């Protein structure tokens, strides 16, 4: 090797060591940055045969995709768990005191007390008050569900706006990556920025990343819709500002494809949007149906029956609704019943009625009066009402609780259904969060910065620098000696 070649090799080595040192210094500086991926200066041979430093990042593609999937699933599950807890408190109260089950039991108990002393007007008023409290709880629970659905629409709208903004930022970052790639420059910073935005997008709607030539990226949703390809695709949603029990929410559309909600307490949903759709259209609707079935059961159980023997149909009694005086069809869900149910004015002294009609009947005329003489000790009608509460009736399977059972049993199962959903959702949230954390740690171990390793690398680079410097010094001395001989 000539002295000139040796000098060029040593100079190139110094330049590479300087570049590698700069990379290691950058690693140390950004060690605490969560979105930073460790850089590594790898020496490769160029087309001209020289040795150059190429910056690389160590990213396991399969592990990264698994982490993205776990992130989206954890986000959805956490939202399902949190919102079910919120719904339980809103509808049933912290201690369950506002639940239809608790209110119905109170009414059942007061009716039994009234049977033992049918002449006691205070017991009649107590039963009436318990009936009013039950109606109020059903009305309020139904109203709370509509408020919940409205709030879900607002959250969806905000999340869609956020997603559209992130897609615009992803487009800018992707343009930077492809531009740096074409120019042959280091793309590490641009890739980190794009990946950071990608993870935020993935929390909202899970994506599969398709890597194209030139470091270009396309995003496809789990449902198969194109979210980004060269340019962001439209994500649209029209929120509803007021919900009734029968209102059907609008779809979220990505490039024209609707976002489907998940299923089950251990949800199949991934990402916040799918979880919100499930909460609005599935969980909320199921709870509403259960409330409506309780209301329907109450109207039926307390209906006034024909006392004349003339075969007249049952008509609404203590509890009434917009379809009064007809009694709702048995075993068939009528949406919105919980919001419509009310106390029949004929039974309510505050509305000019008479609480003794609970004992006697007769709001629908003389044919429905079971105690025409007004006997104070008459209790047969009260007994029949309690037996109706305790009797078996059919419930619509749309409520998530199907079969034939007593209204009291149904209300208890309804409370248990929501508690069961909450428990399952909470356990699933912990499991999915744990998986996400483990995968994140694995990625961090592969791509994160270890200060000890970086300091060891600096020592190696220092030795390499010293060796190259000694070569340059030796060559310089040889050239000086050669020049002195020539002179």
Strand order across the biggest sheet?
Answer: 3-4-5-6
Number of helices: 11
User: How many beta-strand elements?
Assistant: 13
Distance between the termini: 24 Å
Largest sheet: 4 strands, antiparallel
- Give the overall silhouette: rod-shaped
| Strand portion | 5-15%
Characterization of the model:
The chain is of the alpha+beta class. It folds into two domains: 3-32 and 450-486; 65-226 and 231-435, no CATH class. It is built from eleven helices and 13 strands. It has helices at 3-29, 61-92, 100-116, 121-183, 188-204, 272-301, 337-340, 357-360, 380-390, 407-447, 451-486, and strands spanning 39-45, 51-57, 207-211, 217-221, 226-229, 231-232, 235-236, 253-254, 257-258, 319-320, 342-343, 393-395, 403-405. The strands form five sheets. The chain has a four-stranded antiparallel β-sheet. A three-stranded antiparallel β-sheet has the order 7-8-9. Strands 1-2 form a two-stranded antiparallel ribbon. The longest helix has 63 residues, at 121-183. The protein is rod-shaped.
């Amino acid at each position: 090797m000539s002295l000139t070649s040796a000098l060029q090799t040593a100079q190139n080595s110094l330049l590479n060591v300087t570049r590698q040192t700069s990379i290691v210094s950058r690693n140390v500086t950004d060690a605490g940055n969560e979105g930073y991926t460790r850089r590594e200066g790898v020496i490769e041979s160029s087309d001209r045969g020289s040795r150059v430093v190429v910056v690389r990042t160590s990213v396991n593609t399969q592990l990264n995709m698994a982490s993205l999937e776990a992130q989206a699933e954890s986000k959805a599950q956490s939202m399902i768990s949190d919102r079910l807890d919120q719904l339980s408190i809103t509808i049933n109260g912290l201690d369950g005191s506002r639940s239809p089950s608790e209110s119905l039991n109170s009414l059942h108990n007061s009716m039994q007390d009234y049977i033992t002393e049918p002449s006691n007007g205070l017991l009649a008023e107590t039963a009436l008050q318990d009936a009013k409290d039950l109606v109020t709880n059903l009305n309020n629970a139904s109203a709370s569900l509509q408020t919940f659905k409205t709030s879900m629409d607002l959250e969806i709208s905000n999340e869609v706006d956020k997603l559209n903004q992130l897609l615009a930022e992803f487009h800018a970052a992707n343009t930077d990556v492809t531009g740096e790639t074409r120019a042959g420059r280091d793309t590490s910073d641009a890739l980190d920025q794009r990946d950071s935005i990608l993870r935020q997008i993935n929390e909202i709607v899970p994506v599969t990343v398709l890597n194209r030539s030139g470091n270009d990226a396309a995003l496809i949703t789990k449902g198969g819709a194109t979210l980004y390809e060269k340019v962001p695709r439209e994500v649209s949603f029209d929120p509803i500002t007021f919900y009734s029990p029968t209102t059907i929410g609008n779809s979220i559309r990505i490039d024209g494809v609707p976002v489907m909600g998940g299923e089950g307490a251990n949800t199949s949903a991934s990402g916040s949007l799918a979880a919100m759709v499930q909460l609005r259209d599935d969980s909320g609707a199921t709870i509403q149906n259960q409330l409506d079935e309780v209301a329907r059961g109450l109207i039926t159980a307390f209906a006034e029956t024909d006392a004349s023997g003339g075969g007249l149909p049952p008509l609404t009694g203590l509890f009434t609704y917009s379809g009064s005086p007809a009694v709702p069809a048995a075993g068939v869900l009528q949406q919105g019943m919980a919001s419509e149910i009310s106390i029949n004015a004929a039974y309510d002294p505050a509305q000019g009625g008479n609480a003794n009609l609970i004992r006697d009947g007769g709001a629908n005329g003389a044919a429905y009066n079971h105690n025409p003489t007004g006997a104070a000790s008459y209790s047969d009608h009260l007994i029949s009402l309690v037996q109706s509460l305790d009797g078996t009736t059919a419930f619509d399977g749309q409520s998530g609780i199907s079969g034939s059972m007593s209204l009291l049993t149904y209300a208890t199962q309804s409370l248990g259904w929501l508690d069961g959903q909450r428990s399952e959702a909470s356990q699933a949230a912990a499991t999915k969060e744990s998986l996400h954390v483990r995968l994140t740690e694995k990625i961090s171990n592969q791509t994160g910065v270890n200060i000890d390793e970086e300091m060891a690398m600096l020592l190696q680079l220092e030795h390499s620098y010293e060796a190259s410097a000694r070569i340059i010094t030796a060559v310089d001395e040889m050239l000086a000696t050669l020049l002195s001989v020539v002179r």
